[in-house]
Each structure stands twice: as C-alpha cells, then as structure tokens.
Amino acid sequence: MEALGLEKWIEIDVDAVINNLYQVQDRLGERQVKLIAVIKADAYGHGAVPVARCLSREGVEFFAVSFLEEALELRRAGIQSDILLLTPLISPHQFSAAIANHITVTVTSFLEYEMIDRITAETGHSLTMHLKTDTGLGRFGLNLDEILEICRLASRNAFIYIEGIYTHMAEAAFNPAYTHKQFRQFEEITAAISSRGFDIPCKHCANSAVVLNYPKMYLNAVRVGTLLSGQHPAGKFQTRLKLKDPFIFKTRIISLRNMEEGDYLGYNRTHRLKKPARIAVIPVGFEDGLALDVVNKPAGPVDMLKHVTKTVLRYFNADRFTITVKIRGREYPVRGKVFMQMALVELPPHLDIAVGEEVEVPVRKVLVPRNISRVYTQKQKLLPGGQEP
Ligand SMILES: *Cc1c(COP(=O)(O)O)cnc(C)c1O
User: Fold this and answer.
1) Residue 382 domain flag
2) Does residue 233 have its Cβ closer than 6 Å to ligand 1?
C-alpha cells in the first residue's frame, strides 16, 4: 500500500466477505430460504457498493438497507437487485423516489399505506412493499387490524404488491423464552392473515442471532448483516461459523521518541511511564472511531457491574482492557487519552523500528468516517482497475 501514500486506510479482504457468505449459505442448507443481505450503515463499515457488487456476483439477489438514501446510492452504482428499506418513508416525495427506482418499501403505519395507495392510483406506477409488525422490539409495526385493512385495500389496487411481512427480534442472542414468544406471536399474525384469504408470500423474522440459534424460525427469508460482516453477534451460541473479519484499519507511525520513566503522556496527564519507553505517535484518534464506545443504559445489574469493572480496570491499565495496536503482528498498548486525530503507543525502548512503519488499529468499523480510503484486495492482490471490485 506504500504507493498510495495515504496516512491511514482500510484494507477490505473481499475473499473474507465471500467466505462469510458461503458460511451463512451453508448454515441455511438446502432449504428454500432467501438470503436478504443487510448492508445498511455502509455495509457495517465495509463499503455498501463494493460489498453489494461482490455479493451480487456470488448470486445474492436481495439486499436491505435502512434508509432511502442508502438504497439510491446502490441504484446509482448500478445495483439492480431487489432492495428492501428497513425504515418507513414519511413523504409522498420519498415514495415517488422509491417507485421510480424500484425500491421495496416497509410499511409500518396506516398513514404510510394511504400515501402509497394515493400515489400509485394517481400515477399508475407500481410499488412492492413488506409490512412490518412489532412483536416485542418496540420500534415499528402494524397491528393485526391494520394489516388486514391494508390487505383489503391493497387487493383493490393493482399497482400495489404486498410481497412480504416481517418482524424483528429484540433478544435473540440472549433470551430464548422471549424469542419464542415473539415468534409465536408472529405466527399467529401470519396465520390470521391467511385465514382471511390473503396471501403474503415472504414471511421473515430472522437476523444473524436467529440464523445461529433457531433454524425453525428461518421461514421464507433471513435478514443477515452481522455474520456477513465477519462477526458473531454478542451472546453465547452453540453454532459458530468460520467467519473472517474482512476489515483492517491501517496507518503509519509519524513520530518516534525515547522517553523516561516518570514522563507524562497526553492531555490531563492520565498516563505516567513506569519505565523508559519509545513513544510512537499514530495519526488516528477518536475522530476515526478509536476508543469510542456506544454508551447506553446497562441491560441489567450484571451488565452495569461489567461496565464499572471495565472502567476501573482501564484506570489501572489492566492489560486485558487496554487498547492495543498491532505492529509486525505484535500488540502494543495505547497510552494516555486518545486525541481527536492522534494517539500514543508505548513501545519497548530499544525496539528496532522507524517512522513510517505500518500499524493496525482496532477502530469501531461503523464509526470510521467514510472519507477514509478503502482498499479492496482479493487473493492478496490489489484489484485491478481501481480500488473497488
Ligand atoms: C440490522 C437489521 C437486521 C440485521 O441484523 P444482524 O443481526 O446484523 O444480522 C435485520 N433486520 C432488521 C430490521 C435490521 O434492522
């Protein structure tokens, strides 16, 4: 990558993405289950367009993203497969754009349906939709009465095709009882719909955690993002796939200095050297997603205790909770407060190393700014004809 002259860049291993796809397909087995590849949030940081191209070449025909703008980006890049939006649209203008670009929408309220009904009837353009029902996540959803009313109205509008109905699991990685309860509720809803004579062909409720844990819940399609991105969802699973992380964030050392025992490092002097060291500066900071955590209300007392323990142990520089970077395959600790655009790494005082040495940095993939170059490699080679497959 030397030739590119970049300060920092992301290497994406296309073979790893394909490996993860094969692992998921293997898990789905011979059943007639459609794979909806979820590539929201820029394909979890890997680049939505190149990942979509790679998956399309491997036969994936259905994608999902959260927002209209994400779907339009895929269309502009020439992706012609089905694309499902996972969040509702809220204006006629947005629905018109979805119709013009053959994007499949999710309907989560009666208001949205009315807009669609009007626009399609007025323009004579057709739209494919999936209905969303809430079985316990508390985010979006129609109730059974609304679903039946929409089915009735849609059966009189030739321009509307209700292709699917789905729900989303709240706790599939941790709580089997709640997951089964959500699933039963979803089955009751879909059974009620067919008993009234309406046929919605594509029923789906499975995310990555469900794919790992509950084969009985695959139904007609699964919506998988996390597994394709090379990670197992948080939680304990009996089934583990052989996934590969396609993502490496790299930078180079821009400064090296020898420092003494007792010297301070960084703002607020949060770290003091216990022994002499070589201190390397890397041009990566919290603006790049380094040392950022998603702060949330803890899920329970145990979770809270974990957070507190981690914070305390970090304060005392416990090895396991120190952020480390990798140089020539070895780990070295990041010291002091991470700066906005830089960080300090403690190296042994006599390490034979020079400015310009490559460093692998553990950043939060989805928090990395999109203007950082991604370099796509396949079979260890830089792909010809530019940086993307
Ligand atoms: C993000 C998302 C998924 C994918 O979930 P993973 O656990 O990442 O596989 C599926 N469905 C919906 C509605 C989502 O928002």
Assistant:
1) no
2) yes
